[in-house]
Write a sequence for this structure.
């Protein structure tokens, strides 16, 4: 199978597409054929001297179809998403086949194209962790900074599901997509007056 790997840390030029051995799922693991991955902290793994031993396959997020399973919670043929926590597990997702512990997988959303669902695991987990830390409840009000980003946009949507009132802050013009996700007041989304390079961002 093919995988995107690095032998050393550096810029994009260190990325290499290679033929590597396909993984075999261990007990309680699931083998997924990749539909899509995403770009999240992968550039840090590539550029900084952190992460698993080299050579390493990059990638944290994956969406795909289960092709072999040693976990009864995930049947062959099911569409799933997962975050590999690549630095901790050493398992990268930029590969045609990925074996991960079953508890890292979740059913892919039925209403979202499988390729798009690959952007959800890490950003969604981060948004959930942030909201749980705030102990946000119905009727409370929250300011989502970086509401047009991946994490910020999910914070806005999850906060609304909780029943909170949401104000959203974006860094520059052209982020009108954040408005419909916001609270019912049309003017609840504001643009930061700071330069994009210094504006706070949640995603």
């Amino acid at each position: 199978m093919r995988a995107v790997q690095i032998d050393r840390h550096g810029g994009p030029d260190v990325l290499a597409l290679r033929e590597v051995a396909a993984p075999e799922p261990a007990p309680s693991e699931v083998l997924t054929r990749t539909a899509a991955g995403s770009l999240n902290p992968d550039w840090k793994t590539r550029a900084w001297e952190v992460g698993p031993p080299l050579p390493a396959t990059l990638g944290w997020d994956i969406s795909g179809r289960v092709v072999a399973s040693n976990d009864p919670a995930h049947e062959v043929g099911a569409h799933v998403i997962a975050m590999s926590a690549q630095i901790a597990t050493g398992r990268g997702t930029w590969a045609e086949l990925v074996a991960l512990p079953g508890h890292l997988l979740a059913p892919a959303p039925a209403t979202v194209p499988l390729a798009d669902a690959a952007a959800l695991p890490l950003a969604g987990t981060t948004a959930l962790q942030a909201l749980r830390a705030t102990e946000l409840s119905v009727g409370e009000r929250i300011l989502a900074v970086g509401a047009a980003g991946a994490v910020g946009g999910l914070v806005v949507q999850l906060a609304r599901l909780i029943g909170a009132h949401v104000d959203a802050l974006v860094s520059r013009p052209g982020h009108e997509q954040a408005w419909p996700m916001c609270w019912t007041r049309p003017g609840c989304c504001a643009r930061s007056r700071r330069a994009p390079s210094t504006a706070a961002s949640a995603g």
